Amino acid sequence: MATDNPKAIRLGICMAGAVSAGAYTAGVVDYLIETLERWQQKKEQIQRKLNQGEALTEMEKLVPLHNVVIEVLSGASAGGMTAAVLAYSFNDGSYYTKKNNDIIARNYNIPDALDTPTKLYDVWVNMADDEKGSTFKKLMNTDDVMPLNNMKSLLNSAPIDRIAEKAIPRNIQFNPPKYVSEYVSVLLSITNLEGIPIDIRFSNIDSNNPTCNVLKMHSGFLHYQFKGQSLFIDYPAEIITEATKGHLAVAAKATGAFPFGLSNRKIVVNRMFFEDFKNRLKLHSNMNVNLKLPEDKNYVFNAVDGGAINNEPIGTTMRILDCKKKEYHPDDENYMILIDPFPTVTNAAKRDEYCEPKEYTLLEQAKKIVKAFRNQSMFKQEDLLNGLEMEHKRYLIYPIKRKFYFLACGLIEGFSGFFKKEFREHDYQLGRKNCQAFLRFYFGESLEKYRQITNYNITEEQFIKWRYNINYGKADVPELWRMPLIPDLLRLNSEDEIETPQYNGLTSTELATANKLIKKRIEKVVNASYPAIQKAGKSINIVVGWLLKFFSRYMRKKISSTLYDKSASYLSDTFYPQTLKQEDLLLFFIQKIQAKGRLYQKTKGVWARISAGGEQIVSWTSDGRETSNITSVGDYVLQNDTKIKEEYIVKPDKFQDRYIHEKENYYVPNQKARVYAIQLTAGNIAAFKLEGLQQLIDNPSNPIYIEAPWHESQALRLDDYLVIPLAKNEVYRIGQKEFVETYKIV
């Protein structure tokens, strides 16, 4: 177990924007820090024993003693706010959940009433909820309402101010644990609404020529440290002291200022830092800042959501990591973890097929160009190129959840988490669960690489205890073992896992309450803004102005009701109880399917194989990805003899009861492979009064999600088939194309 010339693994934690889904990021970070803290406490206990010549227990001998140090905390929007709050928590010890003032020694989902939660939990889950009302109620408060052209945001931003103020520690006494660098960099992405003018020089224009090409740079970063460290990067770090401790909170509010929704923030950059930034930009990138500040003036600008331009600042994070490595710890290895609640992930084996676009109308063009701006702002070519050398050291944590709804806070473009605390608790717990799986089964290296980067002589017993097989569940593939870089010490006593959180949408009462608050705010904004509308109408035509004045009451009501109706309709569609549980399907549809539907025989054969267990089987249909499930030992993995050749899992008893072996691994269905089915056409839904499915007619482009018998969600679309087997013990969906190709009427 001896370690000669110990090395450290250096981490950069980059957190993407997420609006209220920052609760997910907070859950990930809390579990990561809690795991590091539990490990650090045990390492210190072991080291004390070794120093005193005491014998270690068998369990203590299994604990690896290498070092991991967080060097960079970066983020945009909600991710930047999380970075700031975590950094603050190292000043008052609120960075891990405590029970009786000590770390919790067991697996748990979320803190209970007797626990002392982290500052991150308080900020992201509790938010502004208190005895006076919910966070949503406070965001809808009308005390800030004035004419629309004078308002800074559509929502009342005062609750955000109070949350930020609550996060600031009473005293700046930066005392990070050993797994956090005392020189940790806190980097927040911001969007500068004024922009910094950059002078681009060309070789055919000499220095005496006043002509130059000036571009505006709107994307930027605010860099903070609690202890100064000289770094060869563009963004100098402001040192957080007792006098400047509020600066980080203002920066956090700025990076989280979602455009239009929340108020923009005024940032004051000390003149010394701005001049230093200009000099660094010239030195590092040969770019001149074409802006001269008046004497004794600071640089002041208005900032909004950093995620509007740079939502995943991975490139700058990696550059700071690289700079620290070169200047201070060249023998250590850097790793970067990106936490992204809304990643753009796809099936890596599937390639987009080219389709020649049509010509766009003006409205279509406007929608496309907004999307193009957004996509291009997220595609940072420089970041990608700079990070190529770290490709095998970049890791992504993102929401993974079986059953329904990955993120409760992910609806309404990330704003749904403001509606109630339970949504935020859901995502916080999911973040903890995903981080637990990440640390145990994904964040590791081969034994040879592990020894190289840690210089730690791990024992065979330690490796056997902690290792995981990256080929687990893959058929006919040799085992390939990895050693976790951050051991989760909970596994010493138990392999228990955090439970999958249960999503429960808004009740009808909660939705009605939310609509009432929204309506009140809309009416007040319209009433406050109406004089400006009258004035604008009068400037166009005196008659128009007179009509607007004469019909003032009617027009105010009409404008308010139109805006409210659109809002209420959108919320109704969003929070509609789209997840129909299996018990509801059995209760409402099984008799109607048997009575109104038809009996069908499966006619197409299948290829089948027996699984060794642990395989992830993703079912793809003509509509795209349908479900994903994990096999148990002995399950059959079936592949339909159809054009799509979709794969799915069947339990051994069902398979053996319904299929006959024909040749090799090919099987044909017997007469027990029959189902009752009804096609969900608009006519059938109306005629048979299929409760809960009317939305398929009203909004045919939006599916309804049902719980399949295997506890995955299925997207139910118009013209699909709703099916029950002969046993009448379950209800599930089969897509129209797959059903027509596979089944025939008896």
UniProtKB/TrEMBL annotation:
A motif (DGA/G) lies at residues 305-307. The keyword Lipid metabolism applies. It comes from the Bacteria. A motif (GXSXG) lies at residues 75-79. Pfam families: Patatin (PF01734). Residues 13-318 form the PNPLA domain. Keywords: Coiled coil, Hydrolase, Lipid degradation, Lipid metabolism. Residues 29-56 form a coiled coil. The active site is at residues 77, 305. This is PNPLA domain-containing protein. It comes from Niastella koreensis. The lineage of its organism: Bacteria, Pseudomonadati, Bacteroidota, Chitinophagia, Chitinophagales.
